[in-house]
């Protein structure tokens, strides 16, 4: 890791927003709820991801659809990036219509070399507050990787444990588009098949990691959960047009693909 990247540790930024009901209504529609399984008048668990959206000008967008690096995020040269996981504490409710502030700090940067080549792991701390105080703390992991190698295939994931309850959906391009619209996410792997396949080396359109996490949270909420903590880790990607199984047993949640391979693991309390 270069000294230049080290210099980004401790860098912070603050953003302001209003907890509008509009994107939350869109989320309920995407999740196919007539009556959402969360408390009325409050931002639901993980609903904070629909606020503080980036506003990079079009001229500032890179070839992958993300904003060019070197603003808040460091100028890491590796072309592929993914949201690898988060650890979240829900400390207090956020009322619909409340003014909210997010303070973000780059907490760590670590370079590694593995079987798939060079990787850089970036950890960002977020603290979200309303007038009543801090409501959410989140530690987010972002991974940067090198370009796909010819013939590169995703390694087999871990076998799935026994589930107490399961819900299966098949994400299609409409779902991916609607979630990207809700989060103002222009990463091309979620809508441009040619780019996803030929540039980033995926077999098809990639289901957004936070969408899978939201679906796992939704499974828990459908069964009466009132979480104070939630953590997830992406293990392998899910793809458009393939069955995605949402599974739960006690406080454990996970997703599997049509072959039974685990795509994401999570814990809720």
Question: How would you portray this structure in words?
Answer:
The protein is of the alpha+beta class. The chain has one domain: Thiol Ester Dehydrase, Chain A. 17% of the residues lie in helices and 33% in strands. The protein has helices at residues 3-6, 21-30, 173-183, 193-198, 209-222, and strands spanning 12-18, 80-90, 99-114, 117-130, 133-145, 165-169, 229-234, 244-249, 252-256, 262-268. The protein has a 10-stranded antiparallel β-sheet, with helices on one face. A hairpin with a 2-residue loop joins strand 8 and strand 9. 30% of the residues are buried. The model has no long low-confidence stretch (mean pLDDT 91).
Task: Give a quick set of tags describing it.
5 helices; 10-stranded antiparallel β-sheet; 269 residues; alpha+beta; 10 strands; globular; Thiol Ester Dehydrase, Chain A
Secondary-structure topology with pairs:
Elements: H1 3-6, E1 12-18, H2 21-30, E2 80-90, E3 99-114, E4 117-130, E5 133-145, E6 165-169, H3 173-183, H4 193-198, H5 209-222, E7 229-234, E8 244-249, E9 252-256, E10 262-268
Helix pairs in contact: 2-3
